[in-house]
Amino acid sequence: MPPFILTLHSLICWVLVIVAVIAIIKFAIGWLGKKPYDTTANRLTTAFKVLMDTQLLLGFFYLILGGLLGFRFPSYRIVHLVIMIIAVVLAHLTGL
Fold this sequence. Notes:
The protein has 96 residues and is mainly α. It has three helices and no strands. It is elongated and about 55 Å long.
């Protein structure tokens, strides 16, 4: 199993968390200050969606490569994949 896929998946996870926290803070400040939705908010939303898609693809490749290389498909990985597909769909439902 190429370890770089899991490493990259883990690193992007932390970048995704950082972007999400920054976006939440930005949106909370904008909402409390009754400021309009701006370009920075749009970029944060786009970055979040792109990182979510990248995470899903890397996780899917990791699952498939692991299965093809004989590591089978443990149920916790299948459950994780299903939950992440739902999360990515919800991230894209914002309509922004």
